[in-house]
Amino acid sequence: MLTLATTNPGEPEIFASLQGEGASVGRPVAFVRLSRCNLACTWCDTAYTWRFEGDNRSHRDDLVFERSANQVTLEEADVAARIMALGQDRLVITGGEPLLQGAALARMVALLDGMSIEVETNGSVAPHPALDSQVAQYNVSPKLAHSGNPGELALVVDRLAAWARDPRAVFKFVVAAPGDLAEVEALQQAHAIPSERLYLMGEGTDSATLRERARWLSGECLARGWRFTDRLHIHLYGDTRGT
């Protein structure tokens, strides 16, 4: 069984769209969004995947979501059938933190026919071996101090080192202010992350904020040899589910 986020009560968040971030930006893909996360970013734009009643982890919007309306459990075969019906050749598995459900994901992915698999992860959880062998690309987004997560939970040293050694992994750091760049530089140096696999993305859930941050962030990427990524889906669809 897989535990998924919802677009509407009872409707799993499985949809086709353009990948909005990172190395595959602009590519038509299928998405499946899983529920639950081991971290709690104060600016998380998918807090409906983890901030349920009784969860006292902080969030800037201070919203609390009803679990029954925002989480649904489905058989792996059902999820696979819904994904295949979208007619795409690539699947992006996102969350929440999808690697928390690695074994069930491995069973689901094995049912997909001819699809390339891309996984979005916060980088703190090791992939299940049965899933790992089926993944073409990892989008690893380690959470910096401004996320509000304790460093010992968000920046697991051996995990970051393992991702840096894996050529399938690209790193996407969410930054909000110029002061965040020193932390990115330190992590790059500590783990020998190649610049061509290091993307920076402004934090924001509206076009105006993203454009403002892109003005200075793009120049910093140019100066350091890092890649810049926008959030295409925000510009196209706004901060909405199922996009």
From TrEMBL:
What does the record give as cofactor?
Mg(2+); S-adenosyl-L-methionine; [4Fe-4S] cluster
Q: Which domain of life is it from?
A: Bacteria
Which enzyme class?
Answer: lyase
Query: Where, by residue number, does [4Fe-4S] cluster bind?
Result: C37, C41, C44
Positions binding substrate in this chain are L18, Q19, G20, R33, T94
Q: Keyword Transport: yes or no?
A: no
Please name the Pfam families in this protein's record.
Radical_SAM
The keyword Metal-binding belongs to this UniProt entry's keyword annotation: yes
Read off the PANTHER family from this record: 7-CARBOXY-7-DEAZAGUANINE SYNTHASE
**In which family does this protein belong, per the annotation?**
Belongs to the radical SAM superfamily. 7-carboxy-7-deazaguanine synthase family.
Oligomeric state and interaction partners are given as:
Homodimer.
Which named protein is this? 7-carboxy-7-deazaguanine synthase
